[in-house]
Amino acid sequence: MVRFPSLSSRAISSLLKQFTPTSDIPTFTLLDGARIPVLGWGNGTGAAKEKAVEAGLWALGSGLRHIDTAQGYNNESTVSSVLSKSGLERDQVWITSKLSQKDGSAELDPIPLDKVREKPDLLLVHNPFVPAPGQIVAFWKILEAMKDAGELTASLGVSNFRPQDFEILLPEAKYKPVCNQLEYHPFVLTHLQPVLDIHAKHNILTTAYGPLTPILRHPTAGGPLKPILQRIANRLGVDEAAVLLLWTKATGVGIITASGNEERIKGFARVQELCKLEVGEEGTLSRTEVEQISEVGRMFHFRGYDEHMSVDFPAPKLPSQ
User: Fold this and answer.
1) Which of 108, 128, 131, 210 is the right S-S partner for 101, CB 3.0 to 4.6 Å?
2) pLDDT tens per residue across span 182-241
3) How far apart are CA 213 and CA 235, in angstroms?
């Protein structure tokens, strides 16, 4: 198996150019017309964060063409190194970044706009607590003014926004957020329904982080979903993680998933290929299977990350398992 750190930059570049071209990557179209790859590799947690360059090269080398990063991950600048070593052109890789508080903490002051180190295709406000209290609209207006002046070319979006945040922002926004990136998987569907309704009304793309939480972070590694995931995985010849990612795409939601493991990253790339299929086609989930996963998920509530979406947005009174 090829391991990029043992190769020269020229060899890496040669290998990467053999992979699927960007035009073959499955995408969603944002409300501003930009096309975002359905599946992205993120460098915000665990080993993906610790070895962001090495794992980023594995991601691009496997055929993925979307990197998700943030100021608060303290490794945003590694994306430039990944691109440089990959040999790919800038327009062949979609970059999502986020305006964050220092170290990603909601209790600390945000990092200034002029400290954004990458020139992303999509720039998100990492959470509604990045602006000072009561300043969501004023903060957004700064981004809009930068966009109008040509100082910012990225699509604009948000992350971890609750219903009340949209109620404040949307009536005043010249440029509506094109997406809201949040924890999304079957066990948060009931809690998220008011947010998802807003997304649907305003054509805002839902993008998932933590989509594998039911099998990675739930205390029972799947809970009531496990037999359904296993049955579908056996039918398709994939693992349970792939089933959850395919369910995410089937519900019309973008995917961000992190890993610092080369084989798992290659698995994500195989899922990306399956994401080219429509629900019901051979090789992916049937509409009945999508609905089964959703129906069971709505009966339970479990979060892997509760630092943002649980603030002043009460969770439903449902069992966790």
Assistant:
1) 108
2) 999 999 999 999 999 999 999 999 999 999 999 999 999 999 999 999 999 999 999 999
3) 22
- CA-based end-to-end distance of the chain: 39
Strands 35-37 and 27-29: antiparallel
Q: 180 is written with which tokens?
A: 């809201």
pTM, two decimals, is 0.89
What are the Cα distances from residue 88, in Å, to 6, 10, 31, 49, 224? 19, 11, 27, 21, 43
How many separate helices (H) and strands (E) can be counted in the chain?
12, 10
Smallest Cα–Cα separation from 186: which of 96, 102, 253? 253
Cα dihedral sign, 44-48-54-60: negative
> What amino acid occupies position 59?
A
In contact, 153 and 179? CB cutoff 8 Å: no
What are the catalytic residues?
Answer: 73
Question: Letter for the amino acid at 131?
Answer: P
Tokens 């029972």 correspond to 220
Q: How would you classify the pairing of strands 205-209 and 179-183?
A: parallel
CB 48 within 8 Å of CB 55:
yes
